[in-house]
TrEMBL record:
Principal subcellular localization: membrane
Record-linked PANTHER family: ACYLGLYCEROL KINASE, MITOCHONDRIAL, SPHINGOSINE KINASE
Protein name as it appears in the record: sphingosine kinase
InterPro entries named among the record's database cross-references: ATP-NAD_kinase_N, Diacylglycerol_kinase_cat_dom, Lipid_Phosphate_FormReg, NAD/diacylglycerol_kinase_sf
Amino acid sequence: MDRQTENDPPAIISDRVLVNGVVTPLALTADGEIRWMESGRRKSTAEKDVLSFVVEGNKVRVKTLVERGGGICCEGNAGDYTRKDFVFEPLSDESRKLWCDKLHQHLDSLGRPKKLFVFVNPFGGKKSARKIFVEEVKPLFEDANIQLEIQETKYQLHAKEIVRSMDVSKYDGIVCVSGDGVLVEVVNGLLERADWRTALKLPIGMVPAGSGNGMIKSLLEPVGLPCSATSAAISIIRGRTRSLDVATISQGTTKFFSVLMLAWGLVADIDIESEKFRWMGSARFDIYGLQRIICLRQYNGRILFVPAPGFESYGQPASCSLDKEPSVSDKAIGYQGPDTRLEDLGWREMKGPFVSVWLHNVPWGAENTLAAPDAKTVLSLPCYHL
Ligand SMILES: Nc1ncnc2c1ncn2[C@@H]1O[C@H](COP(=O)(O)OP(=O)(O)OP(=O)(O)O)[C@@H](O)[C@H]1O
């Protein structure tokens, strides 16, 4: 345990330094792990936990995140992190300079975001986004040396308005400290821009501070992390992205875009009509949902769909053809939806009455609602996750 083993990654710098007043060997590995000896025991901090470093006189303070469940810290749950500094003192000016250069090079090589635009929705969920951001998220971003431009949303569609005209080239990502509503506004704002192809490359990060938080739950759960502000912030700092599908919704002459879900009937009614119980947080969905289930409504309609492979026997062949999409005017700007010729597809239909129609792009409809376990996310919009 105490000696370098042959499986250890090679050191990019290795030197004798002072740790707690004792001269000890210290190494930074190619994986970004910092290894040293303390009280005769080998200690280390994993790559992913190094956030930044500062020079304080002769000393170097490395800001790290430590998973409580493992590594060098105490017991805890996976994804439960605490901030911890590691301080060492190189034995000469040259050694200190070399350490700083190597740490700089290493942190630069990780491709982490350097400047983020952050939306904080003070109205979402139990109205605690401001507190969550200031207490749990901002200190981590600051430790990671991420420059922030913070914007509280002042009214509905404010985030969309800003995103539609912001200079996206100034940022490495947009973060929403909110529920799913602000995320949807940001996605729609990006897709309505004339330069949507470029704008769409900007990763979007989420920090759960709403009532449902289905998207961030769907991003964190598959990598075994709790749906917490800390795990979300860390995944943003690490800067790894994953792509999401975008659904295009046409309603009359209006077009909008969805990344989470589309609901008609029971779930939509619960979502909209429980607004008056917003102060309850996510419990508003359960309590109002129960009330709606006791007094169940029915919704008449017809659903036309193109079955996925393996689901061809669902419904009946469509009894009428699908209306042709109105042709896109030359003046239309922004994303207009996929190029697919809808009238050429093998449509089938289901006739109501329905109780609930719930289409999902991701598995979780809300933090406690695994609505579509097989809705595996794929392809096109980058979202920060682990
Ligand atoms: N200052 C504000 N006052 C009123 N509404 C706002 C304000 N800022 C944003 N909004 C609106 O609040 C709505 C809900 O926000 P958000 O999605 O963050 O929370 P939520 O509805 O509680 O969570 P979820 O969508 O996950 O259920 C959004 O549609 C947004 O446009």
